[in-house]
Design brief:
alpha+beta, Aminoglycoside 3'-phosphotransferase, Chain: A, domain 2, Phosphorylase Kinase, domain 1, six-stranded antiparallel β-sheet
Length: about 350
């Protein structure tokens, strides 16, 4: 079957139904400007600048004294999920004030998640955050020492969230590795056969050992586009972005999200991830089960990235270039990884 047929069958089956990934009317820069001025009382310098995202509208907003990030949620996003994200960010900031996290900017009425009434759209939730300095980790070539710092920062964030609870934390997310089984229907989208091998490992090795994996609320997306760095700073990591995938899941799945991006597509696949694990363990020691299962969890993360990107890009062709940006590299990484 071709991709369009596979996607159509999966959509009709409802197996991967998630309304937050359906196409929606984008907020225009003019509408964003009005929100900034009337809802948050900020007078920007120039027009808000749209940033590429998967499932919301995000704008960089320059003001005379500060730069901000305006995020307007997908029309189908549950306000409880947005509250979860903001509560997790606030909790981590309080638990470890030195973590490089964004600040929350309240609306003029004091709300941190104001509801917006936009033309021809259901009510949408907005939030304003401070804009952190730094370059995306994607643009950096970190040394072993800096990779260890990345691991240390990710471990500190996990520890900061270790006692966090929220009614929505148990939500069902397609990008949560706990729900890897949901992706089985998409296997035909990967013609290499490597994803089949990952599902075999999942069935035979991971499933029997799931009870051995510690569970907590985690950020769960410590990837190349969600970590800011400064090559000239001793602390290296200057920002952790995007709380859209925060969820209660296996702690090791959170670490796998950061490791997957560092798997080499040629040569020793685990050299860079090993440095991150070393840094992580210096702050938050992993269990023996977590250490043994990590390479397989990373393979699951890469498989998830490939299958989800193929499915979402076919479902939302207008955003296909952004959604498929990691498919080729992820496929090469998965081919090179032993687990």
């Amino acid at each position: 079957m071709d991709t369009a047929t596979i996607v159509d069958e999966v959509q009709r089956s409802g197996l991967l139904h998630d309304a937050s990934y359906t196409p929606f009317a984008r907020v225009t820069p003019e509408q964003a400007l009005s929100v900034v001025q009337t809802v948050f009382g900020i007078e920007p310098v120039g027009e808000p600048v749209r940033l590429a995202t998967e499932r919301d509208d995000t704008f960089r907003v320059h003001a005379s004294d500060e730069t901000y990030l305006l995020k307007i949620a997908h029309p189908s996003d549950d306000p409880a999920d947005i509250d979860l994200q903001m509560a997790a960010l606030a909790h981590a900031s309080h638990a470890d004030p030195t973590l490089p996290l964004q600040g929350v900017v309240p609306a003029q009425d004091g709300s941190i998640t104001p509801r917006l009434a936009l033309p021809d759209s259901p009510a949408r939730v907005a939030r304003m955050l401070t804009y952190l300095p730094g370059a995306l980790l994607r643009s950096s070539a970190p040394t072993p020492g800096r990779l260890q710092i990345c691991g240390q920062v990710q471990a500190r964030l996990a520890l900061a969230l270790a006692d966090f609870e929220h009614p929505a934390a148990g939500r069902h997310l397609l990008f949560d590795l706990k729900n890897f089984e949901d992706l089985r229907a998409l296997l035909p989208l990967d013609q290499s056969g490597r994803s089949d091998q990952v599902f075999t490992w999942y069935d035979e090795v991971l499933v029997p050992r799931i009870p051995d994996l510690p569970v907590q609320v985690v950020h769960s997306d410590f990837g190349l586009d969600n970590v800011l760095v400064d090559d000239t700073s001793p602390g290296y990591v200057t920002g952790i972005l995007d709380w859209g995938d925060v969820v209660r899941t296996w702690r090791a799945a959170d670490l796998a999200s950061g490791l997957a991006a560092q798997v080499a597509d040629t040569g020793p696949a685990w050299a860079r991830p090993a440095e991150i694990v070393s840094g992580y363990q210096s702050v938050c020691p992993l269990t023996q089960a977590e250490l043994e299962l990590l390479p397989g969890l990373v393979a699951m993360r890469l498989t998830q990235r490939i299958l989800m990107a193929e499915w979402l890009s076919a479902s939302m062709p207008s955003n296909a270039e952004y959604l498929r940006r990691n498919v080729v590299s992820s496929s090469r990484q998965l081919t090179n990884l032993s687990f």
